[in-house]
Amino acid sequence: MATAVVHYTAAAVTDRGRKRPSNEDAFGFSIEHGVYVVCDGMGGAAAGEIASSLAVDEVMRFLTQRTAENPLASDASAAISAANQVIFTRAERSQKLSGMGTTLVALLVEERHAWMLNVGDSRGYRLRNGHLEQITMDHSLVEEQIRMGHMSRGEALRSPLRNVITRALGTQNCVTPDVFELEAEPGDLFMLCSDGLTRELSDPLIESLLLVGAPLEELCTRLVSAANQAGGHDNITCVLVRAEA
């Protein structure tokens, strides 16, 4: 395999959707440091917004100030643990923030090396050679039922338990992200998103929208608009990252 050097471009769009009064999603990225993060907060009042913002801020701070002594993936896991502790401690100090938490999906890139990490049901995908592949696996009750063969994909979509996630930042003293190691090729398009996108749009529809020849910002806007047109029941966030030769 050729070892062409790749560089990255990125864009992001977030929207509160058509039903929610506020936006509890948050995102951050640094092309310079190869760090991209999406979080979807949960909790009463403004707690979800606080949790997701704390997570993004802490992960971005940790990874943009890191030295190159440790492997990037190792530092990323440490950053997520630090973010978890910040949210957990803040929630313990305030009764109105009790129980707040957030999902997280992150992409880290270092030349051709790439890692996706996730906690919860925000997702990471890769579009390669016209095919969209979900890289992360949801930490949700229905997804676990599907993996064990106890529920079909169609049943999961209709289940009243489809909003129940089994892992989140800030709800427990410790959390462990799933880590997926990848190799980036020129032309790869990575997508990080909250479930406000994937609940409204099927993977084949997302794939078709990503295959439109348009700038990344426009692709993000098209995806968010399509999710809103399909109902917009939740906050919607999309971050796109393209590897280029």
Task: Tell me what you see in this structure.
With 245 residues, the chain is of the alpha+beta class. It has 7 helices and 10 strands. A hairpin with a 2-residue loop joins β6 and β7 (131-134). α1 runs antiparallel to α2 (72-93). The longest helix is centred in the middle third of the chain and has 22 residues, at 72-93.
Keywords:
alpha+beta; Phosphatase 2c, domain 1; five-stranded antiparallel beta sheet
Describe the secondary-structure layout:
Layout: E1 7-15, E2 25-30, E3 35-42, H1 47-64, H2 72-93, E4 101-110, E5 113-119, E6 123-128, E7 131-134, H3 141-147, H4 153-158, E8 178-183, E9 189-193, H5 195-198, H6 203-210, H7 216-229, E10 236-244
Antiparallel strand pairs: 1-10, 2-3, 3-4, 4-5, 5-8, 6-7, 6-9, 9-10
Helix pairs in contact: 1-2
Oligomer state equals: single chain
- From N to C, what is the helix and strand string? EEEHHEEEEHHEEHHHE
- What is the residue-averaged pLDDT? 93
- Estimated share of beta-strand residues: 25-35%
> So, CATH architecture?
4-Layer Sandwich
CATH topology term:
Phosphatase 2c, domain 1
Concise account of the structure shown:
This protein has 245 residues and is α+β, with helices and mostly antiparallel strands. It is built from seven helices and ten strands.
